[in-house]
Amino acid sequence: MRRAFRAQPAAASGRAPCPNLAAGPLRFYCEVYRPFTTGTQIMKPRVRFAPSPTGFLHIGGARTALFNWLFARHHGGTFVLRIEDTDVARNTQAAVDIILEGLRWLGLDWDEGPVTSDATGASRGPCGPYFQSQRKDSYRQRVEALLSRGLAYEKEGAIRFKMQREPITIPDMVCGDIVRPLTDREELDPDFVIVRSDGEPVFHLVNVVDDLDMGITHVIRGEDHLTNTAKHIALFRAFGVEPPRYAHIPLILNPDGSKMSKRDQGAIISVYMEEGFAPEAVLNYLCLLGWSPKDNREIMPLAEIIERFDLPGVLRSSAKFDMTKLQWVNWEYIRSMPNDRYYELAVHALGKAGINTNTFPVEYVRAALDTVKEKPKTFSELPGWCDFYFKDEIVFAPEAVERDFVPANTAGLAKLRDALEQLATFKSSDIEATLKATAKELGVKAGVLVHPTRMACTGKPIGPSLYHLMQVLGKDRTLARIGHALNHPGFGG
RNA sequence: GACCCUAUGGUCUAGCGGUUAGGACACCUCCCUUUCACGGAGGUAGCCCGGGUUCGAGUCCCGGUAGGGUCGCCA
Predict the structure, then answer these.
(1) Residue A492 pLDDT grade (very low, low, confident, very high; cuts 50, 70, 90)
(2) Which of A44, A259, A262, A445 is catalytic?
């Protein structure tokens, strides 16, 4: 039983082989792995994102996916999604869904890979299954091949790979040629386990076999894999093929320079979905961490990023995550967003805050949202800027009440209310003229009336343009709110 | 402990032997103004340290230091 992994016959798996790989001989793979240097035919790159379903999509993982995706799109290649769900106990279908949802939210569509989170379900592309849990046959065959050729051996129930002792040069498209000698611990025993004693293959093995089976030409992944790449290169060579090209991208760190874990601010993609970030803004910001267009461009449409992104522009040093700048990018995206998309995201955000805009006329909702489009950094902030449009009972901000709802303002506010009542049309220009005329009659600056009026209408000391907000609110609602505020004890009864 | 990567304002970055070291976020000041903002005009702040190469070094080399990564029957 403990040898379950090897106990099954090494029968050919039933799945259809990749078109590039169908011919069979290992030698053929070499051409696949040298797409830009061999033959007369230029082969398009095939890259992959291979997350482990841990229950969240880490921002570093999302950026790795993004760089792979951009590379594929830039070169007209293929972006493959593969699920590394070898740890059955930990990986649930719900955890896979979180990955898929995150990638879809970001707009990182995959050309090959799962269609749903069901590991045994449908997939797209000729190199399936795209779940490692479904690829045991392939791993077993590869291990048998190594065993039969004396390149691996069994010890204490596990199968170990015979690692070379000489340093391995890792040709990296970002870092250059990296020479990786053995560490002192590895000097003692350079071999490593590729199949555990319980029969389960380990990461280094399955990762290499899958990349080989799927014809992956470029491995773009986090720098944390850099030194382990020597193992992978040795494995590829043991299988008789040249390894793919590698590009190790720098990690994303916390503002204090420590490693980001899922608990750190901004570390998981779901918070951006929940906090009302625009996915295109998150994507744009992520591009800027570890890649530079070199010409000071920052806010770029996706089409331009795809056109300009390439591995030579990837930086070698790790970057610290800066939520403030992300918020700025998001704000830039919101304010320049097409109105229809803005309305859609805004209505969604208001709904999440318990404000049902469906009970208001569409034109009213849009006019209200128009007045605050440049305000929020994220959509989750939006209700705070415009909820007064949609509530009958508004709550007065306490500190501002003390400042504005005072006896000294009573007569002025009442006078303004009366003046507004006389208006035949209730346009912002009329309202502004009326308020300023009233202020002049009272011999005060406009601000003296503006503050208590804003408070009466919105309950807040800050917000959109007062005159425009009153126009949107409409005459009846505006007068009612001012009248109601005048009853506040602060005005002296 | 060993090995690998990295090092420009607080942050993201441009620079690729000769620059008043550029841009963006953040911060500060002023102007504009119905609030908060936007916008406009300014400002504070940077080449980790030490050697070397060179007429000349942020830029090349070496050594430190610091940060990150790896050396698992985790992925």
Answers:
(1) confident
(2) A262
